Amino acid sequence: MTAQPAAPDVFHLYDTTLRDGAQQEGLRLxxxxxxxxxxxxxxxxxxxxxxxxxxxxxxxxxxxxxxxAGELELRHAKLTAFGATRRVGARAADxxxxxxxxxxxTEVICLVAKSHDEHVFRALKTxxxxxxxxxxxxxxxxxxxxxxxxxxxxxxxxxxxxxPAYALEVxxxxxxxxxxxVVLCDTNGGMLPAWMGEVVSAASDIGVDLGVHCHNDTxxxxxxxxxxxDAGVMHVQGTINGHGERTGNADLxxxxxxxxxxxxxxxxxxxxLARATSVSHAVAAITHVAPNARQPxxxxxxxxxxxxxxxxxxxxxxxxxxxxxxxxVGNDMRMLVSDMAGRANIQLKGDxxxxxxxxxxxxxxxxxxxxxxxMDGYSYESADASFELLLREQTDALDPxxxxxxxxxxxxDEVSEEGDSEATVKVRVGDAVVSRVxxxxxxxxxxxxxxxxxxxxxxxxxxTFELTDYRVRILETGHGTDAIVRVLIDTTDGERSxxxxxxxxxxxxxxxxxxxxxxxxxxHTRAA
Length: 528
Ligand SMILES: [Zn+2]
Description:
Blueprint: E1 12-15, H1 31-44, E2 48-52, H2 58-71, E3 78-84, H3 96-103, E4 108-114, H4 117-124, H5 128-144, E5 148-154, H6 156-162, H7 164-177, E6 181-186, H8 193-204, E7 209-214, H9 221-230, E8 235-238, H10 252-261, H11 270-273, H12 276-287, H13 309-316, H14 343-352, H15 360-376, H16 384-394, E9 403-416, E10 419-429, E11 432-440, H17 443-455, E12 466-474, E13 485-492, E14 497-504, H18 507-527
Helix pairs in contact: 1-2, 1-12, 5-7, 6-7, 8-9, 14-15, 16-18, 17-18
The protein binds zinc ion (ZN).
Zinc ion binds at residues 20, 187, 213, 215.
């Protein structure tokens, strides 16, 4: 086996799920989704999170404003604003889009610059010299404002093929103006691994730190990224689950796991790497893009073995049948269908929520319950509140604030001012049994009103509870209207927000379960 290159002193894992990843067909991220994904990325331990393009679209501007207002506290990652070099013929200091980058208040800014001569002529409709001036002026202005500046040179590999001297000239202009890293982008995704080294080496001669940004159009995004690393880049860009337009971007988890486990480079700590599987699943739950079971390292099938011939041999030595230990990435070897990782992960998760699950029998029992629930369609990766309720139930640490005796809801085509649905909820609260009717638009809204009304005398805190998001996913397609549905509900009390999950063949039943958990968790943790 060939020896791997030594790790550079500084190495950047740069995530662009929120910007380039969000270009994926059919993907829509709200500001709240973006904040959630950013927190998950921080848990993975990436160095940089590109949040979007402030000034270019209102939701990205709102995201940076929310982050600056304290809604996003990052422990590891630096939030990065993305933007373009100034307009043709303007001054960077006077360009409103350049200003918007400064206003985003991030320490790091990533600028995109043209490096392919034909794109300068046809897209920018300007001269090669003016493009160089745009790069230099914008980088100088932003570094003058105290920002660390990375420059994405787009279409660099195609540009190098068409006009190598000019493509390199753009890299030099960015470097001389003070860019900390120049990122070579395979924007069209047409490169192959064997072609990467020569181009990266040519840019290396300029003497600036280099990065790489690959798309997966040849199915080689990860391989091209590694080839660029071999040629000396110290900064890699990618997205969680390979999200991105067309065939997607380099999957940052696969890249990071390869660098950590195959190269032995400390790009992520062991603890962070062990969260990779849950991070991948959490992002899938938020983006509503079903996880790819065959995704390297973190896919459900990544370490799945069909029972049979291999079964007994695997028991003797599992390492004979897998390329790495799945626990290192928070995944699990499976002989049967089970979605969530095993006991170690449950213990880790329990720790995180303040539960001592060091007792092996207890942890194994809870793992069995979780596996069973996940087979039934539950997903706890993003529903921490439901998971905590499950742990409390299993450890007899739940003293429920209320118990539901019965519920029902009617929806009709008659729409009044109060809505089209009427719900009745009967609950035991303390010593009293309370029955209330609630009206609303849609069954969930009516149930929410009825439950809130039944609880408010004994638990006035419910007044602060607000449902902020509601997502439904059909799990078993092909069954038509009989399909199993999973509902995720996000709730806030103004200070905290939490997510709960419900599952059923009936969307109302699944919604009710998630709603019930939302109130139970909210009241339990406020009382505690
Ligand atoms: Zn891209």
